[in-house]
Amino acid sequence: MSRFRSSIVSDAAFLLFILAALISIMFTSSNPNLYLANIIFLNIAFLIAVITYFTTMTTGLILNILFIFGYGTYTLYQTVVVGGVIGTQNYFWLIMTPIFTVSTWLLTLGNRQLQAENEQLQKENDSLATVDPKTSLKNTLSFQTDATIFMALSVRYQIPLTLMVISVKYWDEIRRMIGVDQLMEAIHDLSKISQTSIRTNDSLYLLNKDNPMWGMLLFTDRAGASIVIERLRKTVDEWNRGEYAEKYRVGLILKMGAVEYDPEVITNPLEFIVQAKKQLEYDV
To answer: Any idea which UniProt keywords this protein has (predicted)?
Structure first.
């Protein structure tokens, strides 16, 4: 409902601004004798509106007060000293200039509310998303859900469960050598290689995208995970010697570690990740 109101405010303010501009243009062109003066006042009204758009309503109100005071003083001078007559010209810009300011402020207010709501929705979407949009891999949120189920199955049916984690050696140095687009391609390519190294009933997760770390939940013991590690290491070595060596101009070396699930030590999925990450320190 709030998003609907913000949209209504923004649309109404835009229509009010367009209507005020149309009326001002028609009024300016209606009297050739005052054409120059009206053009000047129209530009002042637009200038105050633009300043209000990029600042605050308070700034716009202050500028309008200064304009009304200055224009009122000018009108008083023309009436008392010069002997002029107060006409429609004198009242029109005193009314239209604040209308421009108010419509601009309402337009800004509606747009900012829509932007804030859009950012909030984006954050909520990111927090609820279980799949990384770039690699189509499950993320940490999905890992926590799946790992909780797999850990319970492991205990209930006495099935060995191992978490294998993979990271890239010297990632900070590599990041400075190749561009952002190539970094994302490298993450995507490594994800595909990792997927080909596991069975269909095993699961691959992208646990960290900024400093890439993948996690594999394997229905096997620690010895079985070692076989997967060696197979993946061999695949990456072949990958570095092949077409990808020219593609990235640098070899990508993986660090891998694995830990078998022990309900006495590992009480939750995050602890599972922590224990597996510790094993990376031994892969030098």
So the answer is: Membrane, Transmembrane, Transmembrane helix
